[in-house]
Amino acid sequence: MDVFETACRRAVAYRSEVATQRVKPQLSYHQMLARFAGPLPEAGIPDCAVINELADLGEAGLMPITHPRFFGWVMGASAPVSVAADWLAAAWGQNAAMHSVTPTAAAVEEIAAGWLLEILDLPREAAVGFVTGATAGSFAALAAARGSLLRRSGWDCEADGLFGAPQVHVFVSDDVHASVLSALRYLGFGERRVVRVDTDSQGRMLAEDLARRCAACEGLKLIIAQAGQINTGAFDPFASLADIAHDNEAWLHVDAAFGLWARAVPDLRPLTEGIERADSWVVDGHKWLQVPFDSGYAIVRDADALQRSMAISASYLPAKGAGERLPSHLVPELSRRARGLSTWAALKSLGRSGVAAMVSRHCALARKIAADVAQVPGILVMNDVVLNQVILRFGADGDGAERRKVLATSVMNQLVADGIIFVAGAAWRGEWVMRISVISGAISDEDAAITIQAIRTAWTQVLAAPSLESVTS
Ligand SMILES: *Cc1c(COP(=O)(O)O)cnc(C)c1O
Q: Whose alpha carbon is nearest atom 12 of ligand 1?
């Protein structure tokens, strides 16, 4: 059992130092490949030596995603308590597929599912599948949607598949997250067959355009909305979308990978008004709840629809009794780890008020960062900071988009090279912007102040550089 202690020691050493590290990997992917390269071992080595070698070789290629000033993409920072629960999940070695076989795994999941529905204030009768993330969550929820819609037309999709089935019209926002298109693709809805609905400057779906496009289509309809656009953090107008879905007898699904947590905060909750009228939702645990990867939730109002699309049955597998949770009937996988434990631990550790305080604090810090850098000449905050996302444009109106892209890239290269904060870019409305996602559990006011200063300094350095090439090279 020494190997557990070795891993524990290495993990503790890493996590207690991570906030003092520069926020970038020391070595690149190719350098790490060279470090790990070697033939398949003919003979094994002792377990502790394996773990020490993994840590000795591997640490230089770690991205400090758990660092309080990691602002890349939208990623959580895995709270220690949830990581610890996840260790137990692995050490206990439970296969969470069957409730009667691994009672603790299924019971904890069932309780955590109830807590999630309560804190997110979604219909308490909804089914919650513990999936690997929002992509898998959309896959599961949209499979339920597909089955349910087609059943209404007398078509049994689970039995007869899609060939020859009535058409289902799929409506997505023009600023849809790419993972939704992937989920649609896995389900036999081609990416190109979706109807893209116009959005406003913040990436919110325009309800009038959705209504118009729905009116132009006959037949079954699936509408996919979004809570928390990845660049702007914006929320679709759910109350209007729910009305349109109702009028069209459509299934309304919401990709709310991080935005759904706004519902846990009384001040932010109005952003989600009407979202509870949808038919399905996905939200991640591994983003704002600070649960380790891979953890997300597929939430479907019609529990039966989710079970019909996901259930795995065989003579040698236990059946589901009335009132029992059979985890393998709610997710795509059969064998999997006890994913509910880390979610249970996060909610137990933070409590309702702790989740609200964390989400609220992150949003306040995002507003603070945006307000301060907006004072700097040449930096433009391109979004209304309604949540935790801030996007910045660098350069003046007269510079032109190409030149501004060079400027933004130079600032980001400078910041990443300095390693005080980590940020990455994206294309948004014809601009190349710097994205700041405030979502690390541990970020403090001081971290926000350091971030503001780092951006100011990098921008000053870029402007002072004799040529931009010297900065970008
Ligand atoms: C992160 C994200 C996803 C994908 O989630 P995964 O957990 O990475 O699968 C989908 N939609 C939105 C809005 C996201 O932010």
A: 257
